[in-house]
Amino acid sequence: MITTITYISLFCGGLLILLMLLSLLGGLDLDFDFGDTDTDVDAGGLGVVKSTLTFVSVCLWIIRIALLAGMNPGVAATIGIGAGVLAVLLLTLLLRLLLKNQENVNWSPDQSINKMAKVYLRIPTGSSGLIHININGATRELKAKTNDLIDIATGEEVYVQDYQNGFAIVSKMND
Questions:
Q1: pLDDT of residue 39
Q2: Strands, E, within the chain: which ranges?
Q3: Which residue from 8, 59, 114, 151 could staple onto 80, CB 3.0 to 4.6 Å apart?
Q4: How many structural domains compose the chain?
């Protein structure tokens, strides 16, 4: 029985490590969701398959160690199940912490609307200049025009009213 538990635990652990490496390094996620639900059923980024493999591998390995130590099979199974659940919870927590640190690097110029910006290159009346604006935590540079009848100098604060035809439409902030 101990030999069978060892082989199952090693197989599940090896498969788990392979799937985790494919997920983390290659972006290949070989997991599934249940049905057409809008909510995410998996274990917070760990997934159903990886959660099951983690539980089985850790649970059986702890049972094996407890049986080799001479414990009662019932006590060994209880300790193994508790360790398996704890391992799934800890791995889920770790992956949530890792995924929380991701940044959204995709952005659209439309995200500049209703934000403050700083003129980088003067915006003359009837022509265009450049502004620097903070979008998703990074400074972006956009071409800008103004509908006002005044030039906007470099370094001035402006308000982005709209984004049309590749230009941010800005107005000078009143002092």
A1: 42
A2: 116-121, 128-135, 138-146, 157-164, 167-172
A3: 59
A4: 2
